[in-house]
Amino acid sequence: LGGLAAAHTLSSSGHSITLIESATAIGEVGAGIQVTPNVTRLLERWGLGEKMKQVAVRPEAIVFRRYSTGERVGYTRWGSQFEEGVGRGAPYYHMHRADFHKLLFDLAAPNMELRLNSTVVSVTPSSPSNPQPSVTLASGEVIKGDLIVGCDGVKSCIREVVLGKKVVADPTGDAAYRAIIPTDLMLQDPELRPFVETPEMTAWMAPGRHLMAYNIRAKKEFNLVLLHPEDGSVESWTAEGSADKMRTDFGDFEPRWSPKTPSSVSSTLKWRLMDRLPLDSWVHPSGSVVLLGDSCHPMLPYRAQGAAMAIEDAAVLGNLFSRLESRAQIKPLLEAYQELRLERTGNTQASSRLNQHIFHLPDGPEQQHRDAEMRKAIEMEGNEGNPNQWADRKKNIVQFGYDADEEVEKWWEVNGERIGKVGRDGVGASGGGVVEGLKGSLERVLTKL
Fold first, then answer.
1. What tens digit of pLDDT does each residue of 349-401 get?
2. 311, 206 contact by CB (below 8 A)
3. Nearest-CA neighbor of 335 among 418, 443, 403, 425?
4. What is the dihedral of CA 5, 6, 7, 9, to 10 degrees?
5. Could you count the other beta carbons within 10 Å of the beta carbon of residue 17?
6. How far apart are CA 294 and CA 159, in angstroms?
7. Is the distance from CB of 112 to CB of 17 less than 8 angstroms?
8. By the number of CB atoms within 10 A of the CB, which of 140, 211, 351, 428 ranks highest?
9. Where are the domains of the chain?
10. Where does 60-179 have alpha helices with state H?
């Protein structure tokens, strides 16, 4: 998703794009995805507003429940009130990942060269003796350009090139089952029908586990994400899981869920969840290779912001490179991209990891306090610091009111003249000191969490 978004924003800025993909075909993958206002405002700006409406579901609220009884302990209304407030007019959608992928692919495809079945085996940054960076494919073919954008995910090989060392993602201790239920089956059951008729995102919180569920594909399908302790899963969107084991792992959930709902699931996908502390840098010292999305900031999906951060990355990168006047400006613009994105993505990683703790509390006093605080937030406004992060207005404004293009405009007002000098007379424009300071503060935050 991040790679397609970057292909669109960079091609829209006047650059020639080659997208290199190891898969043999572009096909359906994954399950549900939350598309939050900080992303939908960009997609609407890119002309995808009406197409999103056709395949998306607009959730009315988020609901938190006790796993064993189904008792509601937390509730935050979304819909138009949320969108017009913290969303600044942008909608909050639930979609199938494949539908989202197709929207971005159709947007980017006309203005890029797509190379399928092309596995990158090595990357060569630029150097004084080699002015153009290049990638070498498994076929032996070498592809050159002016800039390589590594959107190759949590197991990124390009990350090693940028850092000059291998840095693996950290296991979070969690893994997830993903499954989809046709809603026509749920509509036949009086207890399950309301989950379809009133589109909400529902979270059942349990010791060491939680379950997220919501409608997708215009309420034709019901998406389930079941989070549990990691037990040998792999980092993959396509690895098959055991539906029977999933039923066993969540067999102590409330009667509406167990055993009724899992009986409708015949197959499931399973993957290990990874994240890491902020990297030393996203930009190779040569200024010819840069990272984007999960390759530089993988995160737990517990704030629904993994894809959102990658798409914001793409928007910032494309906006900055719409101002490019000479090759000499590539490195300072990449440094600007990193400066604009490092704190934002690091804070979002921390917020996602915080929800891991909140959602998975063992039964007892701390869990009871969490539930009591969530109940208070149902009736109150503001709720700063509430364990229901979606009830915290201040956090919502920061997370969902963010506009990637606006942030670039603000940055350019202050720094644009300095960057322009690079094109005219080669004066340097590094922001490395600022970035190092941000990285240090974010490491402290993430370590504490």
1. 999 999 999 999 999 999 999 999 999 999 877 789 999 999 999 999 999 99
2. no
3. 418
4. 90
5. 20
6. 10
7. yes
8. 211
9. 1-58+76-167+277-410, 170-275
10. 79-84, 97-108, 158-163
User: Which residue has 């300071």 as its token pair?
Assistant: 437
CB 179 within 8 A of CB 217: no
- Residue 190: φ, ψ to 5°: -60, -30
Computed from CA positions of residues 128, 132, 136, 142, in that sequence, does the dihedral angle turn out positive or negative? negative
Alpha-carbon distance values, 332 to 8, 128, 205, 420 (Å): 21, 18, 45, 10
Quick one: how far is CA 259 from the chain centroid? 31
Taking residues 420-432, what's their average pLDDT? Answer: 58
Q: Among candidates 16, 336, 340, 19, which has minimal Cα distance to 149?
A: 19
**Other C-beta atoms within 10 Å of 260: how many?**
14
Mean pLDDT in the chain? 88
SS (H, E, C) 232-247: CCCCCCCCEECHHHHH
CATH architecture of 1-58+76-167+277-410: 3-Layer(bba) Sandwich (3.50)
CB atoms within 10 A of CB 37: 27
Centre a 10 Å sphere on the Cβ of residue 269 and count the other Cβ atoms it contains.
18
**pLDDT-above-70 percentage for the chain:** 88
* Sequence letter at residue 414: V
CA distances from residue 98 to 29, 155, 197, 239, 379 in whole angstroms, order as listed:
6, 21, 23, 16, 37
State both tokens at 281.
Answer: 């840098």
> pTM higher than 0.85, yes or no?
yes
């990449």: which residue's tokens? 334
Tokens 């060491």, residue?
Answer: 208
